[in-house]
Write a structure and sequence with these properties.
single chain; Heme Oxygenase, Chain A
């Protein structure tokens, strides 16, 4: 067996992965499980989503965006190390903003408004899919209940999110030019995500002292990828095939069905 590999279920006595091995293993999880391969995103990048379907995506994704600072506040509340808290609290400001700048949440609202949605309608979250709400809340449950190092590791989709963000911006400008002036959220994440990922991966490497703990780190990242994938599953079922939004959820206006402009 190659160095750093271990048979499933036999991690107790295995050697701890080096930093580079751990990073490679986490990146492999991203290659296999990140939502860049989901059919909904593939349709988006091919320019095949209608304006109405993009509205559904923006509205539902807003709910997820809105819980990110809550997720980070939960992690902060569990952190005993002041030096960790000083670094991690930046994430809350990045999403909530402060007196000097808007954060990621309001930047996302700007994107949703560019699709033709009303700000209050988006921010109320009244029309999100039940699955969107359940999946978002499950992310909060993860960081409340799992070992602390796994909670930090769940953020490591940031290791590979930059590539998807860059691709998404390119494809949106190409296929949906009416969104080109509202991509501030993605612009900011091109810088924020790599910075956050660099801190988090070093932290989990330092704190996961055994191979078994590293396996927990990797499982947390798989679970986070599953959360993001499941969110798109719900959107696809409700607004692509068969196109069956549940009672109370957002419904596409007839004038935006099949309309990319």
């Amino acid at each position: 067996m190659a160095t750093g590999t271990v048979a499933p279920g036999n991690s107790t006595n295995a050697a701890k992965l080096t930093f580079e091995e751990l990073r490679a293993a986490l990146r492999q999880i991203g290659e296999e499980r990140y939502h860049h391969k989901h059919p909904f995103h593939l349709l988006m990048h091919e320019g095949k989503l209608s304006r109405g379907q993009l509205q559904a995506w923006a509205l539902n994704r807003y709910y997820y965006q809105s819980i990110i600072p809550i997720k980070d506040a939960i992690i902060l509340s569990r952190a005993a190390d002041p030096s960790f808290r000083r670094v991690w609290r930046k994430r809350i400001v990045d999403h909530d903003g402060d007196d000097q700048r808007n954060g990621g949440i309001l930047r996302w609202v700007k994107l949703a408004e560019a699709t033709g949605l009303d700000r209050e309608r988006v921010m109320s979250a009244h029309e999100v899919l039940p699955a969107t709400r359940f999946i978002g809340n499950e992310y909060l449950n993860l960081v409340r209940t799992r070992p602390f190092v796994e909670c930090v590791a769940s953020s490591l989709t940031e290791l590979f999110s930059r590539d998807l963000i860059a691709l998404r911006m390119e494809k949106m400008r190409q296929h949906y030019p009416w969104l080109a002036s509202a991509l501030d959220y993605f612009e900011a994440r091109l810088t924020e995500a790599p910075e956050d990922a660099a801190f988090a991966i070093q932290y989990v490497f330092d704190q996961a002292g055994t191979r078994a703990e590293q396996e927990g780190v990797m499982q947390a990242l798989r679970d986070k990828c599953d959360i993001l994938w499941a969110q798109l599953d719900a959107l696809y079922f409700a607004y692509v095939e068969p196109g069956w939004p549940p009672p109370g959820a957002f419904r596409i206006d007839a004038k935006y069905e099949g309309n990319r402009g």
